[in-house]
Specification:
Blueprint lengths: L6 H10 L6 H13 L21 H11 L2 H4 L5 H14 L5 H14 L7 H18 L10 H9 L5 E5 L10 H10 L6 E5 L9 H7 L9 H4 L2 H4 L2 E5 H4 L7 H7 L5 H4 L10 E5 L6 H11 L3 E7 L12 E7 L2 E7 L19 H11 L24 H18 L6 H14 L1 H55 L19
Helix pairs in contact: 1-6, 2-5, 3-6, 6-16, 7-8, 9-18, 9-20, 10-17, 18-19
């Protein structure tokens, strides 16, 4: 971006100074978009074509300012134009251009309910806790690495990590990214902040899984969730709570019946704004596009991944294309499970089950039977599907968690990252991260309910005081009328003057 402003500052300035949005301000943008769509069979250089060059950056920002304005998008009279816009972006390929994804993500992040990750505040606390754990918990430090070197790597990056996919790959695999985020967060010094929603095209979405694991997502609010980012090593931000500006667009998207930019935008609008992440895409052509969008956003380090099968995760079956972003540099590499010291398994062995069954698998993988806790939903321990290949799902999870640890800079090699992920899973550290989030989330819900109840009681007492004051005032007026001095003018001697008796 020019002018010395950061991308976030530019987006904020754009949204804060925008005029009221009406059809009159929207139609010229829609017209420019539609007329810029190439017509099949007519070369773009044809003299018969008077199509404008399309939307420049300022117009693109203005367009997304409209799309992110709930007052504009919730008006049913605007839905035809909004649907045409989403379809036009799809037809013209505008929805998968890096500059479009950048502007869209900046705009909706500026409109979302902000989350303060408090990285600087957490830094010293995280380092102290990591040092304590390395000294007191067996298995983290080995003969190959000293405690000092490991501590330096684990705490060098003090921000949050995210592991997320666009969805839409049609593979319907196990909830591996959410589980892997828990595993990564079990490693000392690591913080994962997952951002997701309920399933739209798969059997079980990330939010569905966490609801089955007893996380009270539907009772939480942004105000109760946000503080947990700084106090829990694993946190999940339920997308619908933090992006109210997206809600009015839902019915329009469903009515269109085809993918739009919002099908792939989710991974770019985590309210915690993690500076390091792994982002899965369902098609290889999106790899460099998303890597470029992340680079333009100022992301420090990231992997954009796509399994050779068209999987928006790192494949446990075979090779995965990776677009590695490191600072300003993007390079393409290929990885496989063997690079992490893991065995390959067919994707059919890591298929998804229902959210309850996936939750049972998570608890089994994280060692819930070895670390029983009364807060675990009791029905889940016996509902692991008999057909589930736990070894394959475990390897699939370790693969994603290892990559996240590597991208986060918490390991020097793939194999070291794999060792840390396995230790987190086997030691019960990952399970403790899950339970910590669940306990604090429930505590936050209870505190909010107490505050609501207290506010209700205070309101009740206020009304009672008002009623008492009103009754006291009436009683006082009556007493004044009965016992007080009553002033009336003295009768006039000519009081009868001007009267007529019948």
């Amino acid at each position: 971006m020019s002018g010395g402003k950061s991308s976030d500052q530019t987006a904020t300035a754009s949204t804060s100074s925008s005029p009221p949005h009406t059809l009159d301000t929207f139609r010229p943008l829609l017209k420019s978009l539609i007329l810029s769509i190439p017509i099949p069979g007519i070369p773009s250089t044809s003299s018969s074509s008077s199509a404008p060059p399309g939307l420049d950056e300022a117009s693109l920002r203005h367009l997304f300012d409209h799309l992110s304005d709930p007052e504009f998008t919730s008006n049913h009279a605007h839905h035809a134009q909004l649907g045409s816009t989403l379809s036009g972006m799809r037809l013209g390929g505008l929805d998968v251009r890096p500059e479009t994804l950048l502007v869209a993500s900046q705009t909706f992040l500026a409109k979302c309910i902000a989350v303060e990750s408090q990285d600087e505040v957490c830094s010293l606390t995280t380092k102290g806790e990591a040092q304590r754990r390395l000294q007191q918990e067996a298995g983290w430090v080995t003969s190959d690495v000293s405690e000092a070197d490991l501590l330096a790597r684990l705490t060098a990056y003090n921000g949050t990590l995210d592991l997320v996919g666009t969805g839409g790959d049609g593979q319907d695999t196990f909830n591996v990214s959410t589980t892997a985020a828990m595993v990564a967060s079990g490693v000392p010094g690591v913080r994962s902040c997952k951002h997701g929603a309920k399933a739209s095209s798969s059997t079980s979405g990330s939010a569905d899984l966490l609801l089955s694991l007893g996380i009270p997502l539907l009772s939480l609010t942004p105000a109760t969730l946000s503080p947990l980012v700084a106090t829990c090593s694993f946190v999940f931000l339920f997308a619908q709570l933090f992006h109210p500006s997206l809600a009015p667009l839902g019915p329009i998207r469903r009515a269109l019946g085809h993918p739009t930019i919002f099908n792939v935008l989710g991974p770019l609008i985590n309210p915690a704004r993690p500076r390091r992440c792994i982002l899965g895409v369902h098609s290889a052509y999106l790899g460099n596009i998303f890597a470029e969008a992340l680079r333009k956003r100022g992301c420090e380090r990231a992997w954009v991944v796509c399994g050779k099968e068209g999987l928006d995760e790192i494949s446990i079956e075979g090779e995965t294309d990776v677009w590695e972003l490191d600072g300003n540099d993007i390079r393409h590499i290929t990885i496989s499970p063997q690079d992490f010291g893991l065995q390959s398994y067919p994707l059919t062995q890591v298929a998804s089950y229902t959210s309850d069954e996936n939750a049972a698998i998570v608890l089994r993988l994280l060692g819930a039977r070895d670390y029983p806790d009364s807060t675990d939903p009791p029905s889940l321990a016996s509902s692991v599907p008999s057909a589930a290949n736990l070894e394959a799902i475990e390897a699939y999870t370790i693969l994603q968690a290892s990559a996240l640890l590597y991208v986060g800079g918490h390991a020097n090699s793939y194999t070291e990252a794999s060792r840390l992920a396995r230790q987190s899973m086997k030691s019960g550290a990952a399970l403790r991260s899950l339970r910590e989030f669940r306990a604090k989330a429930k505590e936050a819900v209870m505190q909010r309910e107490k505050e609501i109840a207290a506010a209700g009681e205070e309101e009740k007492r206020r009304r009672e005081r008002e009623e008492q004051d009103a009754r006291a005032s009436v009683a006082h007026d009556r007493k004044t009328g009965d016992d007080g001095f009553f002033y009336a003018p003295a009768p006039s001697r000519s009081v009868g003057v001007g009267t007529e008796d019948a």
